[in-house]
Design goal:
Layout: H1 5-14, H2 43-51, E1 56-57, H3 94-103, E2 116-119, H4 122-133, E3 139-144, H5 149-156, E4 160-167, E5 173-174, H6 176-180, E6 186-192, H7 204-217, E7 220-224, E8 250-255, H8 256-259, E9 268-273, H9 276-293, H10 298-309, H11 312-333, E10 340-341, E11 349-353, H12 360-371, E12 373-374, E13 376-377, E14 388-392, H13 397-418, H14 436-442, H15 445-465, H16 478-507
Parallel strand pairs: 1-12, 3-4, 3-6, 6-7, 7-8
Antiparallel strand pairs: 2-9, 4-5, 8-9, 10-11, 11-14, 13-14
Helix pairs in contact: 2-12, 3-10, 4-5, 4-9, 11-13, 11-16, 12-13, 13-16
């Protein structure tokens, strides 16, 4: 009999005939039932271990292995002599908390450092919040698809995860009906903003409805915002943080792992928000939990203000890499009508919808064994049905371009081998930033972008023909800046694709 500790307690309460003693399992003699009975490798992990070095790894999530240039002086402040003195603070040093609080100015939000608690990682932040909010047997609501880590963290804290769907055909909007009908054991709702791996931001309408539900049901709202500093396609909600929520108890999570691309520094944070009375109540409890572990490294905390101040070049390099790889993927997918690419609001991943001519795991195994390409399949993240592949946008542009091409060519080959006639995929419906009235007055956003590009080109020609002409000084409009950036991304993507096609012709 293999059940969790919390399940055993619940059954003892509900069923008087349930065994009085914990069912003994000889295979787990020295392990608690928080640990899964089977910790063996799955087929994909076993194949990767057998093959060794993977040439095109499109599952990478560790930026320190992706060829980014890290400045040597970035870690210089870890040698602060003050770090030789241990002066523990349950919430973390005030100087570090103040520096983190200042980061929220980019979203025009004032965060009180006293409402901020430092942790060693966002995983630890989740564990602190589960211990603060839940008793054994309680539940938290988590999105699906999303992190597979939630189940493991919940199990280790003797609680359960109940899922609510993100609707693929509705731009990954939250299934509010499922949340509204959640079991009575639920104590908190988790959102990931933007979500990993779908890249979708929580829509402002969903956020408003969710805050109301949490307030009415006395639920806490936990918002994982580690990828918030990396907008790509953007979308409704991309310019806001849950740290500004005031109408329900809310916890916003962030960390250096993503914001600085330095997971080895082990520093994350929890921002508490909501009504003053509720925050005062949980602040004391969260400080109690944190004080029991004191897990934050003093040298890292002391270096945090300078680390954040020097983060811009690396942060930009990671964002630029993701944008170029996304543009490359779009260009490649455009040649494969059976495959569609979902919009990527933000983050480090892209999601492909592919025909389910073979099961996802078999396709991933084929890519590994025949082409040394590693890619995640949708089942890992609890995607609905078959036919989803998740690609990391972090690899070098050259490796990403070749790996993505091999993936798409293998899909096309699998379709041909199946003998099936596949209906061309329709592009997923996208959220529009403009209202219907705006569209009617100004034309579609795409048309305006083309007009602005044409205007810029004409202005450039005019400058060359009339070099003495003076123009009014001033920054370009934000939309024009974004368009220029996307144009550069597309140009770089097309360059790499042309290079691969040239190499193929030479091989032939």
């Amino acid at each position: 009999m293999d059940i969790s500790n919390s399940e055993f307690r619940i059954q003892k309460i509900l069923n008087p005939h349930f065994p009085r003693r914990w069912p003994y399992n000889h295979s787990m003699r020295y392990r608690s039932h928080r640990i899964p009975t089977d910790l063996g490798l799955n087929r994909l992990a076993d194949t990767r271990a057998r093959l060794g070095q993977i040439r095109f790894d499109l599952t990478l999530s560790n930026p320190t292995t992706c060829g980014f240039a890290y400045a040597d002086e970035l870690l210089r402040n870890l040698g602060n002599p003050k770090g030789l003195r241990y002066a523990p603070e349950a919430k973390g040093p005030l100087t570090a908390r103040a520096a983190v609080a200042a980061e929220y100015h980019r979203w025009n939000v004032e965060v009180d450092p006293e409402r901020l608690v430092l942790t060693a990682s966002t995983s630890e932040a989740y564990s602190f919040l589960f211990r603060l909010l839940c008793d054994p047997g309680n539940s938290v609501l988590v999105p699906a698809p999303s992190y597979p880590l939630f189940d493991h963290l919940a199990r280790l804290d003797d609680i359960r995860c109940e899922t609510y769907r993100l609707e693929a055909d509705a731009c990954w909007r939250l299934d509010m009906a499922a949340i509204e009908n959640a079991p009575h054991e639920v104590r908190a709702v988790i959102v990931v903003h933007p979500n990993n791996p779908t890249g979708s931001f929580v829509h402002p309408d969903d956020r408003e409805a969710l805050v109301t539900l949490c307030r009415d049901h006395n639920w806490a709202l936990i918002a994982d915002e580690v990828f918030l500093p990396y907008p790509l396609d953007g979308g409704p909600g991309a310019d806001s943080t849950f740290a500004e929520v005031e109408d329900c108890l809310c916890f916003a999570l962030g960390g250096l792992s993503k914001s600085l691309g330095l997971p080895q520094l082990k520093l994350a944070w929890i921002v508490m928000g909501g009504p003053n009375e509720a925050v005062a109540s949980v602040s004391e409890g969260l400080e109690y939990v944190s004080d029991a572990y004191l897990s934050v490294s003093t040298p890292v905390a002391l270096a945090t203000p300078q680390l954040l101040a020097n983060a811009a070049p690396l942060h930009k390099a990671i964002g630029d890499r993701c944008r170029v790889n996304l543009a490359t993927l779009r260009a490649l997918v455009s040649k494969h009508p059976a495959v569609s690419l979902h919009s990527v609001g933000g983050g480090w991943s892209a999601v492909l919808r592919v025909p389910a001519v073979v099961d996802e795991e078999s396709l991933c195994l084929r890519l590994l064994e025949e082409h040394s390409v590693a890619v995640h399949h949708g089942d890992l993240f609890a995607f609905p049905n078959q036919g989803w592949l998740i690609l990391s946008l972090l690899p070098t542009v050259e490796h990403f371009c070749e790996g993505a091409r091999l993936i798409l060519d293998t899909i096309a080959k699998s379709i041909g081998e199946s003998g099936l006639v596949v209906i061309p995929a329709q592009a997923p419906r996208q959220e529009h930033h403009d209202t219907a009235e705006d569209e009617q007055q100004n034309g579609t956003r795409q048309e305006r972008e083309l007009l602005e590009l044409k205007h810029d080109e004409e202005a450039s020609v005019d400058d060359r023909q009339h070099p003495g002409t003076e123009h009014r000084e001033g920054p370009p409009p934000p939309d024009a800046v974004n368009i220029a950036g996307h144009q550069r991304d597309d140009d770089e993507a097309r360059h790499h694709i042309r290079q691969i096609e040239t190499d193929e012709l030479r091989e032939r």
